[in-house]
From TrEMBL:
Protein's UniProt name: DUF493 domain-containing protein
Organism: Flavobacterium indicum (strain DSM 17447 / CIP 109464 / GPTSA100-9)
Lineage start: Bacteria, Pseudomonadati, Bacteroidota, Flavobacteriia, Flavobacteriales
Domain of life: Bacteria
InterPro entries cross-referenced by the UniProt entry: UPF0250_YbeD-like, YbeD-like_sf
Length: 94
C-alpha cells in the first residue's frame, strides 16, 4: 500500500470514529467494470453479514454501481472491507 493510500485510511478511520457510534449501519458504494465475476467478488465479501445490496448498470453497460448497506462493528471493520475489495481490478470506491 502506498503512503497516500495509507494516509487516506488513517484519515477515514479518524472521521468514522468521531462521527459514528458503533455498531452502525454503513453504506459502501463501488463502481465496478461490468463483469459478472468482479461483481460477485464484491457481493461475496458481504456474505453472511445481512447486507442489502443494490446494483445498477450504466447506460453504456461498461460499469455497474454496487451499493451495500450493512451493519459494521467498528471503523477498523469498515476499512478492512475497503482494503479487501481494493484488490479487484478496476474497482472504484466512492
Amino acid at each position: 500500500m502506498d503512503k497516500k493510500t495509507e494516509e487516506f485510511y488513517i484519515r477515514l478511520k479518524g472521521e468514522l470514529e468521531e462521527s459514528t457510534q458503533w455498531p452502525s449501519n454503513y453504506l459502501y458504494k463501488f463502481i465496478v467494470p461490468t463483469n459478472k465475476e468482479k461483481i460477485e467478488k464484491v457481493e461475496n465479501a458481504f456474505d453472511n453479514l445481512g447486507a442489502v445490496i443494490e446494483t445498477h448498470t450504466s447506460k453504456t453497460g461498461k460499469y455497474t454501481s454496487v451499493s451495500i448497506q450493512v451493519i459494521m462493528n467498528n471503523a477498523d471493520h469498515v476499512i478492512e472491507k475497503y482494503k479487501e475489495l481494493s484488490t479487484i481490478e478496476g474497482i472504484i470506491s466512492l
